[in-house]
Amino acid sequence: MNFLQQALDYIFTAENWSGKAGLGARIIEHLQYTGVAVAVSVLIAVPIGLVIGHTGRGSFLVVTAVNALRALPTLGILLLAVLLWGLGLLPPTVALTLLAVPPLLAGTYSGIANVDPKVTDAARAMGMSGRQVLTRVEVPNALPLILGGLRTATLQVVATATVAAYASLGGLGRYLIDGIKIRQFYLALVGALMVTALALLLDGLLAMVVWASVPGTGRLRRRLPQPLLDDEVRLESGPRGRTPEYTRGEPSPTVEGW
Amino acid sequence: MHYLLTHLDSAWTLTLIHLRLSLVPVLLGLLIAVPLGALVWRHVALRRLTTLTASIIFTVPSLALFVVLPLIIPTRILDEANVIIALTLYTTALLVRAVPEALDAVPAHVRDAAAAVGYTRIGQLVKVELPLSVPVLTAGLRVVAVTNISMVAVGSVIGIGGLGTWFTEGYQSDKSDQIVAGIIAIFVLAVIIDVLILAMGRLITPWARKTKAAA
Question: Which 8-state DSSP code applies to residue A172?
Fold first, then answer.
């Protein structure tokens, strides 16, 4: 009775991958729960983190919200949501979004707030507006931390999306939950192995994205973008008609009326 | 809310189980991670290896680990020990990365001063560098403790979950009141533990407050 052998046999048998309850379909469901939840949390957490990090107002709010959300048990929220709204994409999205917001919010906020004040002061001194400081100086400098938050969030969501199966939803958790329910532990192991593989794969990909985003290394873009100077170049190389032309006017009349 | 108030007895029993399942791993993890982190701190290769292993362990989903562990170690498949060992692994994995980083952050002049007044390398580590890294460790511990409390609840899916039992029971008998009671209980528990760790961290680093007041 070797569970591991049985589980691997199951995974490496082609017919277990097809059909509505096959491994392929389960992976897609799992990725769907993960993708939707992470996307929604990005839409919520990143703007809030940017604004609070940029203005420095309400940072206490971020710390409190992050700690409080972290203390919410995802399983409880998910099961409650299923009882309230029935099956569908909504319950896992709500539960997993609440899980993904804290790391994203923490990453975005601390990324922006920790940009060296000398750098932002210099940007302001060069005449950048608040918005320009944010999008051209703070965000690029904070990118590794923001994406680091995205990585943590994705990892937690992939791992936790497994519990969706307990609420009769899909995803790779089905193997895990069903395997335990019918006491076929090799099936539970199939689920465990697949989720682990998926988590490692996604984490590896995101780790590479974080690595590429480190500012000043030019990994993300071959040529280093030069804020402001870029605009001048664009102005120079653009069609002539669009540049505001300097029209020479008449000299202002002097006091004597010339 | 009504359910919580009418089931205070079972709430108390489940809370104790929940605390045992989530905090024993925090203690064990701390006991493993601090010496291990301090040990690999000065060795570049060992430190990289530890960081890599830790991040791989951290990537393995908890529910998966609860199920896989019995195959690796001789425990039964639905045993409390699986949850404790799995969460100990996570705690260690998270803290073992934080310890060397916290030690890195000790200012060089403090290190030099400690060496100048005659501390041995071990003495310096135990009496100067580790105490100074307490704030970073406290921050890590808070995250770990709160995460563990939430993760234990997930264990209820495989039959070991402390207060998480209310989620599975409430779901099966269609009682949303019971689920809400579980959410409130776990939330309150997590917040209390979070505040306690924060307070403890402040208590054992009285100099941190003094320097802040002086500045």
Answer: T
Question: CA nearest A124: which of A133, A115, A116?
Answer: A133
Q: Residues with Cβ < 8 Å from B171, sequence gap 6 or more?
A: A79, A82, A83, A166, A167, B179
Distance CA(B40)–CA(B35), nearest Å, equals 9
Reported as a pLDDT band with limits 50, 70 and 90, residue A238 is low
Among the listed residues A228, A99, A213, A73, the one whose alpha carbon sits nearest the alpha carbon of residue A154:
A99
Tokens representing A186 are 């090799």
Q: Give CA–CA dist A177/A168, Å, rounded.
A: 10
Question: For the CA atoms of chain A, what is the radius of gyration?
Answer: 26
Comparing CA positions, the residue from B79, B87, B74 lying closest to residue B32 is B87
Q: What are phi and psi of A33, to 5 degrees?
A: -55, -45
> B159: Cβ–Cβ under 8 A, 6 or more apart, which residues?
A180, B78
Angstrom distance (rounded) from CA B153 to CA B18: 8
Can you give the length of chain B in residues?
Answer: 215
pLDDT at A95: 93
CB contact under 8 A, A73 and B164: yes
Interface of B with A (CB under 8 A): 55-56, 58-65, 67-68, 71, 77-78, 142-143, 146-147, 149-150, 153-154, 156-159, 164, 166-168, 170-171, 174, 176, 179-180, 182-183, 186-187, 190-191, 194
From CA A218, how far away is CA A196, in angstroms rounded? 32
Q: What is the pLDDT of residues B120-172, one digit of tens each?
A: 888 888 888 888 888 888 888 988 899 899 889 988 888 887 899 999 999 98
What Cα–Cα distance (Å) separates residue B30 from each residue in B16, B137, B190? 21, 9, 18
Round to whole Å and give the CA distance between A157 and A98: 10
Banded model confidence at residue A243, pLDDT cuts 50, 70, 90 = very low
* Predicted-complex ipTM score: 0.84
Cα dihedral A200, A203, A209, A215 sign: negative
Of B55, B60, B58, nearest in space to A189 by CA: B60
Distance, first Cα to last Cα, chain A: 109
